[in-house]
Specification:
The structure is a single chain. The protein is of the alpha+beta class. The protein is built from five helices and 14 strands. The strands form three sheets. Strands 6-7-8-9-5-10-11-12-13 form a nine-stranded antiparallel sheet, covered by helices on one side. α4 packs across α5. The longest helix has 18 residues.
Length: 264
């Protein structure tokens, strides 16, 4: 979906808010379609129920909904953190994401009934391919890289595996509900450093947690050792991240340190 800038006025302000933040209120829809739903049996409540059923929108508070698929399109260049943090990657065996899956995944994460619970960040700039979610444990940035998701997290090291498991669980559940088949198995990965494979582009390495290594997807039989930051995303036999003992100070503001820039 895309929006053109409407003429100035109260409705134009709400349209601009929807276009830039993904926030849609029931009051705005009632005003926009006043007299068009009644006495027709399709009501405003039916409209929002349909959006929720199709996983286009999710209710984040009373009469307020978040619609990630209408957020501004970002530049096709990858998005990354200014402070070098090592992301976790999730992709399917065919190294491609189903069309329309990313915004539906954001909705699925916001609808989670079990911890961790997420809310869209109101302070960060949201993009259609890069959405910030706040939780009680820290801020999570989920990035659509076309062939995989990237996850960046601001919380304590012990919580890194929990975030990855939450996104993985929501991805599997969503794929099952959308009856997505033929893409292979959902796999965990990290960014391959590209030191020995010499691939000229960013690509995943599949995590091999039993040996703290990853296998490059671009060069057959090439494996590399996970960096200390990459190990944050996997659990040790004790249930903690292997390097949790190193400690990590969570920013006082959950969104602190979470920003992105164009990668040239």
């Amino acid at each position: 979906a895309s929006f053109t800038r409407p003429r100035a006025g109260p409705i134009s302000e709400d349209c601009e808010k929807l276009r830039t933040t993904g926030i849609l209120t029931k009051e705005f829809v009632e005003e926009l379609f006043r007299g068009k739903f009644h006495p027709h049996p399709f009501t405003v409540d039916n409209f929002f129920a349909l959006l929720e059923y199709l996983r286009i929108a999710v209710q984040i508070e009373k009469d307020t909904y978040f619609i990630p698929c209408v957020l501004p399109l970002d530049d096709p260049n990858p998005v990354k953190f200014v402070k070098e943090r090592s992301p976790a990657l999730l992709t399917w065996g065919k190294n491609v994401l189903p069309q329309g899956f990313f915004p539906a995944l954001i909705v699925q994460l916001l609808r989670r009934k079990s911890a961790p619970h997420f809310r869209p960040s109101r302070g960060a700039k949201q993009l259609r391919r890069a959405v910030y979610l706040n939780s009680q444990d820290g801020a999570l940035l989920v990035v659509d890289q076309t062939s995989w998701f990237e996850l960046y997290f601001s919380g304590e090291i012990l919580k890194f595996p929990l975030m990855l498991e939450a996104v993985e669980e929501s991805s599997r559940r969503l794929a099952d509900r959308m009856k997505i088949h033929g893409y292979g198995e959902l796999i965990r990965g990290v960014r391959c450093p590209g030191v020995s494979c010499d691939a000229p582009f960013i690509h995943p390495g599949i995590i091999l947690p039993q040996c703290n290594m990853a296998e490059c997807t671009e060069m057959e039989a090439y494996r590399f050792e996970l960096s200390p930051e990459q190990k944050h995303w996997i659990k040790s036999s004790s249930g903690a991240s292997p390097d949790a003992k190193q400690g990590y100070k969570t920013p006082s503001n959950q969104s602190e340190g979470l920003s992105y820039r164009r990668l040239l």
